[in-house]
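Narrative of activities, Objective 1.

The group set out to show that a structural description can be obtained from nothing but a protein's sequence at a throughput compatible with the screening campaign. Below is one input-output pair from the validation batch, recorded exactly as produced.
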Amino acid sequence: MSTKVLVLGAGGAIAQHVTEFLKENKNIELTLFARNIEHLNQHQSSANIVKGDVLNPNDLNNAIKDQDVVYANLSGPMDKLAGEIVKAMDKNGVKRLIFVTSLGIYHEIPGKFGVWNERMIGKDLIPYRQAADIIERSSLNYTIVRPSWLTDKDEVEYETTQKGESFLGTEVSRKAVAAYIANIIEHPEKDNKASVGVNKPGIYGDKPVFY
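Output recorded for this entry:
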């Protein structure tokens, strides 16, 4: 039996890498959900493509119904988005959620990099943290993903840290974050009820080298 996976925010760069990683997996049935479906890769002919808005309860409920895994990679009012997703998943009895937030939401970055990160992201960290809190309080089997500063490098190197551990890595490629997420989708028992930092190994410092 195939695993039904709903991708919310499917037009985003990380999400498109995820769907590329998964498209050859015959055991996964993808539904790609986005406000602007014309931005989706047209070669995703085997995927179901749904136009909708996560903040529209009818759109969201119709998309989540009968899914096995929900992967959300969104921008906007993160706390409201998380709240609507948790509510719809509870209503439809769907348990597995993968939700992308931001590094720094737990003040988990030590030293100068932590100071720099909070200065750069500023108050935007608050709704990301609120989103994580909403998900962590839920009854869902969640993985909260906290990527480092993102690059477009064509590489899939990554290492992970758990909530409560120091986050040191200053960058990671979108493709590497997607590789991690695709692995979780294919092995949904991994990193359950976990908040996971994702960064490129060995790249540590006071700020990303591209700043």
